[in-house]
Amino acid sequence: MKLATIKNNSRDGQLVVVSRDLTKAVKVPEIAHTMQEALDNWDDISPKLEKVYDQLQNNTLSNTFDFDSKEAMAAIPRAYHWADGSAYVTHVELVRKARNAELPETFWTDPLMYMGASDAFIGANEDIKIEKEEWGIDFESEVAVITDDVPAGVNAENAQKHIKLVAIINDVSLRNLIPNELAKQFGFYQSKPWTTFSPVVVTPDELDDAWSNAKVHLPLISTLNSKVIGSPNAGIDMTFDFGQLIAHAAKSRSLMAGSVIGSGTVANQGSPNGSSCLAEVRCLEIIKDGKPSTPFMSFDDRIEIEMKNKKGETIFGKIDQVVKQYDPIN
Amino acid sequence: MKLATIKNNSRDGQLVVVSRDLTKAVKVPEIAHTMQEALDNWDDISPKLEKVYDQLQNNTLSNTFDFDSKEAMAAIPRAYHWADGSAYVTHVELVRKARNAELPETFWTDPLMYMGASDAFIGANEDIKIEKEEWGIDFESEVAVITDDVPAGVNAENAQKHIKLVAIINDVSLRNLIPNELAKQFGFYQSKPWTTFSPVVVTPDELDDAWSNAKVHLPLISTLNSKVIGSPNAGIDMTFDFGQLIAHAAKSRSLMAGSVIGSGTVANQGSPNGSSCLAEVRCLEIIKDGKPSTPFMSFDDRIEIEMKNKKGETIFGKIDQVVKQYDPIN
Predict the structure, then answer these.
(1) Which of A158, A287, B121, B222 is deepest in the core (most CB within 10 A)?
(2) ipTM over the 0.90 cut-off
(3) Domain Fumarylacetoacetase N-terminal spans what residues (chains A, B) (predicted)?
């Protein structure tokens, strides 16, 4: 089934069930008002939502309306936990190579993961508001999953059972703020301002056989100002699957229902089908030419991120947003 | 005024107004059901809560009940943002000195801050559940503030206006998991499992003149197994005040109402009144004796954290909790 959160003048928005082709939607206040409410009681609520989804697919509902991704908020507009892995270690290896740094051997067995700003999730068509271009604005195209309650100490195999929904996301990064933050060793903070969600999130069964081993085996297409930057396959070179990432996150504590776990920038070894962020493009240029030639994003740049099934149909709808300058108000 | 969240079989608990002496409380469902709901509309709701607080203080309410800190959940049992600073740079300097590492000069001007697990806040009397003692269990006694909505790019002076509530907290740390996480440069994750809140949170005016320059000028008392470990003054040697910490957190994005901003381990230069965590005690031993003699916490250890006003009365109630072993269930 496919679900979305649409604007309704509340901070948490309104949960809707969306048709497979993303044309129709229906509100379900009798089942759950918000995505978080659904996730809080997923075992009880998801069968009811699935029933509505079937009716929507079969055109037996009268209270539907046209789904418009411009009305979409993030799936969970404010969430309680957002942990982003860096599961495509080949990408990390490339970034290190560009600055002549060794990749520690443990990076292949111990996931990198940082805590992100779960109160800063934005909708698929919302502007990316940034104060300064010189902060080095970049997109990062990723896959993410949303969990129900995860017990502390869960193993990677059982962690897979807690994956309830799948999304694609844009983890906006401010590259020129990263070196200082990394040097402080306390992780990313100012350098990771906003994370954008796809218009809809889907249950893993919507991915058919593209969902296996807790990975999504499809290309993730990133398009900057109408030029495709990359379409690496998210199922290839993902060193840690989502079960392993969840188990890592839950090693020393439980995770609350509605936790969002990200894959990190999707990347394939050697980048044969391009990249999912400009930082990787620039690293490839540094390795080849000694210096980068592709700039980071400018104000008014447009980034589109999408994933299609084998029939060429959109799965999550399209992230399609523009970078806009933000003036601080004091 | 003083507020608390008490258990009611929901994930978010029930907002209550608590008397200044922490003996009586009253539910306020006609004003707000939860702490988050109050913070979402603080300007409208806080005057109504203040009125109830006055009535509670004047004994003109009939629907009060005895306040019991054992019924307290964290102020916001699941929050959208938890950012912990390390504002007492003298502590960071000491920790570095113990391992013969230089303190970068920028640490005195650019705050250290990490993103914590806002879905893992626990109540003042709840057990600290940890799987393994060898992870190096430690408490960290801190002051924290809770904000309303903070605009991106706010300056430090204006940021102070967004401080709505003050708390004391225990930022539980797993010291032996920290070196590996610091080496990975992605920040703390597994090493910061739970954060405990004081039984009540208070508006800054409850601190009288102990609240000035966005700091709390009172000793924070940490007691481990009935032995006082330290009572440093939280107003001394706080290099960055809460306005500066909020401004740092909001540099590149807005913060959602209900954001929790922590001070980091309270510490005074030279530790004349002891320490707010065992890591600091051990660092002092390393500097003096070449090696630490105080062990980290063991299962069944009891940690109490409290702050009293100049009359010796408790302000926030007492964090009083025990470390318990947790067996993962798969």
Answers:
(1) B222
(2) yes
(3) 1-78
Q: Which amino acid is at B294?
A: T
Put simply, whether B191 touches A (Cβ < 8 Å) is yes
Are B77 and B12 in contact, with CB atoms under 8 Å apart? yes
Residue A135 to residue B303: CA distance in whole angstroms: 43
Specify the pLDDT at position A250.
98
The answer to whether the CB atoms of B80 and A83 lie below 8 A apart is: no
Q: Which residues contact A3 (CB under 8 A, 6 or more apart)?
A: A15, A16, A17, A18, A35, A38, A49, A75, A165, A200, A201, A202
Asked if A152 and B326 come within 8 Å (Cβ–Cβ), the reply is: yes
Is B191 within 8 Å of A252 when comparing Cβ atoms? yes
* A254–chain B Cβ distance below 8 A for any pair: yes
Of A154, A251, A259, the CB nearest to B119: A259
- Residue A101 pLDDT grade (very low, low, confident, very high; cuts 50, 70, 90): confident
Using DSSP, state whether A126 is helix, strand or coil: coil
With a cut of 90, say whether residue A329 has pLDDT above it: no
Q: Residue B26 is which amino acid?
A: V
CB contact A156 to B (< 8 Å): no
pLDDT at A236 over 90: yes
The full DSSP string for A77-101 is: SS-S-EEEE---HHHHHHHHHHTT-
CB contact under 8 A, B190 and A252: yes
- Chain centroid to CA A225: how far? 20
Sign (positive or negative) of CA dihedral B119, B120, B121, B127: positive
* CATH superfamily membership of B82-325: Fumarylacetoacetase-like, C-terminal domain (3.90.850.10)
Interval B122-165: pLDDT, tens: 999 999 999 999 999 999 999 999 999 999 999 999 999 999 99
Extract the tokens encoding B206. 């409850």
The reply to whether the predicted model has a pTM over 0.90 is yes
Q: Using CB atoms, which residue from A78, A174, A252 is nearest to B252?
A: A174
Task: Record the tokens describing residue B304, joined without a space.
Answer: 């109490």
Chain A residue whose CA is closest to B83 = A189
Type and span of the H or E element at B324? strand B319-325
Q: How far is B81 from chain A (nearest CA, A)?
A: 6
Question: Phi/psi of residue B308, each to 5°?
Answer: -115, 150
Question: Rounded CA gap, A298 and A224, in Å?
Answer: 11
The residue ranges of every structural domain in chain A are: 2-71, 82-325
76-95 of B, contacting A, C-beta below 8 A: 78-81, 83, 86
How far apart (Å, rounded) are the C-alpha atoms in residues B304 and B321?
7
The closest of B142, B108, B109 to B232, measured between CA atoms, is B142
Radius of gyration of chain A (CA): 19
Which residues fall within 8 angstroms of residue A239, CB to CB, at 6 or more apart? A87, A88, A89, A90, A108, A111
3-state secondary structure of B50: helix
Asked whether the beta carbons of A192 and A117 are under 8 A apart, the reply is yes
Q: Which residue of A has its CA nearest to B256?
A: A119
For residue B329, pLDDT beyond 90: no
For residues B306 and B199, give the distance between their C-alpha atoms in angstroms, rounded to a whole number. 10
